[in-house]
Amino acid sequence: MKTIIIAAGYATRLGELTKNFPKPLLKIGQTTILDRMLDDLDTISDITEHIVVTNHKFAHIFDEWAANRKGQKPITIIDDGTETNETRLGAVCDLLLAINGAPNSQDSNLNAPIDDDLLVAAADNILYFSFQEFVDFAREKQTSCIMCHEQPSIEKLQRTGVIVVDDQWRVLNMEEKPQQPKSHWAVPPFYIYLKKDLPLVRGAVDNGCGKDAPGNLAHYMVEHTTMHAWPMTAGRFDIGSLDTYYEAQRLFA
């Protein structure tokens, strides 16, 4: 299994703080947002490599970070070539760059296309649980999987992916930002796509999948293959604004 971290956004809601610096590498205490996530992922024996997809503006910063990180798994930095928020490729296209063998930011040669199970994650969350639980769930179900958590707020459900599941946690339906949510199961940006489903992933955009949010791909996959949802056993802290970044510093530093 390989980890693909989607980190090509420009974090415009954080203003000057991320004007010339990537949000995932902002400090929380003595470490960074992304390091906290990778420290957990490093402990999972199934995972052999971390691939971080970023943009051209921040690729050199990620290169320096990767060269100095003292982690347990190798890190590859993929540069998606964009330099502004207006020209960004979108999370789904960034994922496709990684799995189809894009060049990394330090080497113009193409990496080999990926033919492994994938754990895909957004880079701006602090988790109160281990990804090991999610990997174990996918191994048990032997399907591609998404996470879910109960969200009582209708307003918040209208701004995220929402799923309907059966009593075995098979996903029956998924909608992005529904005006009338069919359940209270919200979907955070963490996914496992098994090797057997990668042909579907590779063909998703050509067959009408939305490009911008990673949930667009999950929505597409639910309609084309069997997927299960793992209910999170604890919470997460999503860093999406200056207020939440400073709150994360207060809570975790």
SSE arrangement:
Blueprint: E1 2-6, E2 27-28, E3 31-32, H1 33-41, E4 49-54, H2 59-68, E5 75-79, H3 91-99, E6 118-122, E7 125-127, H4 131-141, E8 144-150, H5 154-157, E9 161-165, E10 171-176, E11 185-187, E12 190-193, H6 198-203, H7 214-224, E13 227-231, E14 236-238, H8 242-252
Parallel strand pairs: 1-4, 1-6, 4-5, 8-13
Antiparallel strand pairs: 2-3, 6-12, 7-14, 8-11, 8-12, 9-10, 9-11
Give a quick summary of the entry.
By secondary structure, the protein is an alpha/beta fold.
Q: Which properties best describe this structure?
A:
253 residues; single chain; ten-stranded mixed β-sheet; 8 helices; alpha/beta; 14 strands; two-stranded antiparallel ribbon
Description:
- There is one protein chain.
- The protein has 253 residues and is an alpha/beta fold.
- It is built from eight helices and 14 strands.
- The chain has helices spanning 33-41, 59-68, 91-99, 131-141, 154-157, 198-203, 214-224, 242-252; strands at residues 2-6, 27-28, 31-32, 49-54, 75-79, 118-122, 125-127, 144-150, 161-165, 171-176, 185-187, 190-193, 227-231, 236-238.
- Strands 1, 4, 5, 6, 8, 9, 10, 11, 12 and 13 form a ten-stranded mixed beta sheet that branches. The protein has a two-stranded antiparallel ribbon with strand order 2-3.
- The longest helix is centred in the middle third of the chain and has 11 residues, at 131-141.
- It is globular, with a radius of gyration of 17 Å.
- The chain starts with a strand and ends with a helix.
